[in-house]
Design goal:
The protein is mainly α. It is built from 21 helices and 6 strands. The longest helix is centred in the first third of the chain and has 14 residues, at 21-34. It is globular, with a radius of gyration of 25 Å. The protein starts with a helix and ends with a helix. The relative contact order is 0.07.
Length: 415
Amino acid sequence: LALNEIDVNNISTFQFSQVGLEEIIVKAIKYHIEGNILEAVKYYIYCINKGVKDERVFSNYGILLRDAGKLDQAKIFFKKAIEVKPLFAEAHSNLGCVLRDLDQLKEAELSQRRSIKINPNSAKSHLNLGCVLRDLGQIKEAEKYFRKAIQLNPNFNDAYFELSLIELIRGNYESGLVNYEYRDKNKSSSLYSYQIQRQINGRYLQKGELLLVVSDQGLGDTIHLMRYIPYLRRLGYRVIFCAQSKLHGLIKSSGIDQNPIVPDQVKKITLEGTLIALFSIPRFLGVNPKNPIISSPYINTNKELINKWKINLSSEKRPIIGINWQGNPNLEKSYKGRSIPLEIFKVLVDQNDITLLSLQKGFGTEQLENCSFKDKFVSCQSRINSTWDFLENAAIIENCDLIITCDTSIAHLAG
């Protein structure tokens, strides 16, 4: 945002006139470290406009460009930093990160390997290489670099978390779910906003004890794991379930919880029991591939809504294919290739006698405007577009013949 607020071609020179360039560079780095990005950007740009060739300026400005989503520009400045100082390990690693963002994975791998060759003791470069290798499908090799990052820095939370994803992929739930708890070790975690410290740390809970279960991740994750709320009650625990308000209708209809609360209410609770993240429940219960505990359907909409949409869709004479093509854009950095351009679906209507139904909400729906096969969607599509309640969306899905989706919440509702 800071980059967008500044006219990079019109940085005032007045504030810099009495200060030497080295002092300006030091101040820029100081502002950057302190999180005063607006000032840091001004100082970096002033140096760049003055023709300063300093690897610190180029690399740090590249980091800010990457954070702002200006990936091609960031790539240029990381390369400039390397030109000034070819053995600048951090710049090679930063270049590898932005190449990964640009989905140039083989080039990203080479950059991370160069960084490690220059500085074999960089835990961060080992972590970054592990992430690239995982994206390339080299799971075993990726695990090796995550473990090396932990060996180099035993307190490296991100490395434990990335390792957990590999362990879970490979079915090692026992260790994977333990390491997955490192997702909450960073202050950016949603759980920190509740400022409640009574988190479960593997201790034995007494039956009858109060559990405040907080949904700590996305909508799909909440739908996926809310199956365990009734089970906790059957074990004898008293449960307060905090989930996104969009899901409350579905939660009640499915018999998961008749009085779910929203995140804002958590902050007002004087808790006498234990706070536990919803995604920590599988570890607490000992869930693993051979012991899922709850494996039967647990999501329900209601007959009135199913019949309502059956009537709304009754004029369609061909099979109805519900589609969702765009995931959360904020997750695209971590889950590349997750979304599917809507136009790709054209092959389905060209080769099959079907009708499409868009289950896309919010970001991504703008692709419908210029879609070359708009006439292939159900006649009541506009009404579906304005339906955001998950309970009602479940009823719409119930009236489809097939669902194709890149969004987990839609997949769980279909299931």
